[in-house]
Amino acid sequence: MTSMVVSFLMLAQTAGAQPANPASAATNPAAGSPPTDATAGLSGISLWDYIKDGGLISYVMIVMSIIALALIIRNAMYLRRTRHIPLELAQKLDVAMAGGSLDEAARACAGEHADSFLARVMGMAIERVRRSAFGNLELRSSVEDAGAAETERMHRMNDFIGIIAAVGPMLGLLGTVVGMIGAFRTIGTLTGAARSTQLATFMSMALVNTAEGLIVAIPCTIMFAIYRRRIEEIVDDSSRVMERLISHMSAAAPTPAPRQAARPVAREVDRS
């Protein structure tokens, strides 16, 4: 991600530094002058030169950009509605819960769609209902607790992208500060051509680190917000499906028998 953007900026800078028609520039002095050594050196700067100018922090930013790109691709493939709310699983659970069969619903959750959000939440809720003395009356609270845990688990991987988005600018700022410290130290210790060379080196380090920090942070911030919204949509859609399933089980749950009043045992004994 960082490499692509820096390469694009290099190409744009190189194209702007070269004349549109080199032949006309050579024959017509008014059209332009031959490229100087400075222009030729600028156009010959490679991506590796930019990375080396940034120093150690630049390499850290490259590694962070690779990790961020991997996480973005992973979330794009994983956070899909069809993956977490499969229509086939929803239909199987609807039939099983309408018939009051928790065993059939548990088998459906453990099937081919076991890695989906709907299957994990309903599977954990059914397991808790089986162990509870309240039976089906415990289903709603079990679904709510399991849903909260699974939602947190889905957010956890997306939070890594948010961490990179927050750390990227701070690392860039750290590189900028290190470059500025070196630049001011050069001004105070060196003179002549050596000072100009070292000053340019440290200023390049400062600016390259600033640019890399922004290049890493901006896409990560955007994708973090997009994926966070997608997770919320998946959870909301799953909640509507599970609410219908809970209503089936609530309708099938047996009504507790009314408690009978205690017989006056003492009076019966007296009468006898």
Structure report:
The protein has 272 residues and is an all-alpha fold. The chain starts with a helix and ends with a helix. It has one domain. The radius of gyration is 33 Å and the shape is rod-shaped. The chain has twelve helices and no strands. The chain has helices spanning 2-17, 22-27, 37-43, 47-54, 56-78, 81-84, 87-98, 102-109, 117-131, 139-189, 192-252, 265-271. Helix 7 packs parallel to helix 11 (192-252). The longest helix is centred in the last third of the chain and has 61 residues, at 192-252.
Summarize the helices and strands and which ones pair or pack.
Layout: H1 2-17, H2 22-27, H3 37-43, H4 47-54, H5 56-78, H6 81-84, H7 87-98, H8 102-109, H9 117-131, H10 139-189, H11 192-252, H12 265-271
Question: Which terms summarize this structure?
Answer:
12 helices; 80% helix; single chain; 272 residues; disordered C terminus; mainly alpha
